[in-house]
Amino acid sequence: MSSGTPPKPSPRLTEEEASALAERAVEQAGGTRMIYRNPRHPFSLHPTKTFDVDGHPVEVRWGEISSPAVASVGGYVFEIHETELELLIRPPRPRPASS
Q1: Which residues does 22 contact at the CB level (< 8 Å), separation at least 6?
Q2: Angle at the Cα of 46 from the Cα atoms of 41 and 48, rounded to 5 degrees
Q3: Average pLDDT, whole number, for the chain?
Q4: How do beta strands 85-89 and 70-73 pair?
Q5: What pLDDT, in 10s, does the model give residues 34-50?
Q6: Backbone phi, psi, residue 34, to 5°
Q7: What pLDDT, on a 0 to 100 scale, did the predictor assign at position 8?
Q8: Counting beta carbons within 10 angstroms of the beta carbon of residue 69, is it exposed (0 to 12), middle (13 to 18) or buried (19 or more)?
Q9: What is the pLDDT of residue 98?
Q10: Cα-flanking dihedrals φ and ψ of residue 63, to 5°?
Q11: Sorting pLDDT into bands at 50, 70 and 90, what band is 71?
Q12: For residues 35 and 26, is the Cβ–Cβ distance under 8 A?
């Protein structure tokens, strides 16, 4: 039964939480070295895989010759290097309400 009220948006992840979730998903995918050193074919049918980490979908995209390997979660995008993840993009901040 629906109460007629829209569902509350889930709370935003902090950068630290997003980083930890991305690291866990990368480990589930085989680790940073495996992802970094094994790029996919440029026209692969499955360039990404989504992992569920503590109820959060984390998308891991293997790199290609012209694009880096990345992990995305909650609006954050991390580049996957050989031994670490580096923050590339943060989600946009909500604008304050205009008066």
Answers
A1: 58, 71, 72, 73, 76, 78, 85
A2: 100
A3: 87
A4: unpaired
A5: 998 887 777 778 889 99
A6: -65, -40
A7: 47
A8: buried
A9: 74
A10: -75, 165
A11: very high
A12: yes
- List of residues 6+ apart from 42 with CB closer than 8 A: 64, 65, 66
**Which of 28-42, 52-66, 75-89 has the least mean pLDDT?**
28-42
- How far is CA 60 from each of CA 50, 53, 94, 96, rounded to the nearest angstrom? 6, 12, 26, 32
Q: Where are the domains of the chain?
A: 15-89
How would you list the strands of the sheet with 76-80, edge to edge? Answer: 48-53, 56-61, 70-73, 76-80, 85-89
Residue labelled with tokens 């680790």: 31
- Which amino acid appears at position 83 of this protein? T
pLDDT at 2: 47
Structure tokens at 21: 């979730």
E strand spans, 7-55: 48-53
How many Cβ atoms sit within 10 Å of the Cβ of residue 74? 19
